[in-house]
Give the backbone structure.
Amino acid sequence: MGGIPYINENVKSRGFKYYIFDWDDNILHMPTKIIMEHLEEDGTWREVELSTSTFSLIRADAAHYRAPGGNWNAAFRFFKDLPGRDNFIEDTISALEKIEHGEKPGPSFNALKTTLREGRLFAIVTARGHAPSTIEKAVRIFIRYALNESERAEMMSNLRGYRKWIDGVTQFGTDAEELDYYLSMCRYAPVTHGAFLDRLASDPIYGEKLAYATTAAKSELAKEFAIQDFVEHIFHMLRRNTRLDQPISIGFSDDDAGNVKSAMSFIRRELSRRFDGIKFVVYDTSDPTLSKGRKVCVIGQPCLPGLDSVFARW
């Protein structure tokens, strides 16, 4: 954009609202397939390709489905970065192009759009094993496809407003530089990526829990760890940069009912006690008949006017 960039200084009157999103079937219906084996009527096992939504329904059905040869890495071979192929980026573009042609987006698609447009910090917490930089690249693709020119201009004006207010910045970089800074302040937690698993295993509390967890529980523990990491990041950032004189809320959305239940329990048991000044909102987007998900719990600060404006549109 030419000329002097617009700075929205009205952001200082807003409450602090931050968001944690699962990706698959929550933001986008990705075409990535999970490779499983299915027990046929004749007693043989046949390899089948399953969507993520189908897998969430059958993953506990060990009598009829199993990973190929018991190898879960083989089952999720397309859910990590592959040499010479940007498979996650390709699938993200494919999902976004289908939305452009009329396909229904994920239930949190518009919530992520609003988050970006308003310049709010967020975390992507996914069971995928791609590198964090790959997830960030997908967010940049989302911005390019899902936000129109006016919405991107609004995003940049809000980002500069926050930088001026919170960081005391008076000389700004280009749009690309300011976007780089914003996205670097967000969190990308692919919880089956090697570096994330190393962090999880080295944590004195979660490392011990992980050692005794079932396969299903390990994913839920990993997401707990990622949620905690983002909440701590937000809390320390606000304490360092500004007075806590505005309402603070953090929302979490996931399409997996097991992850939702685990997150609710974790928020009640741990986070609401440690961060009693923060309002936590959890959204269950597992029911395909509910286009915007279901608000399942609110912990922390009481509901304040305007605080749920974004979530109400989910």
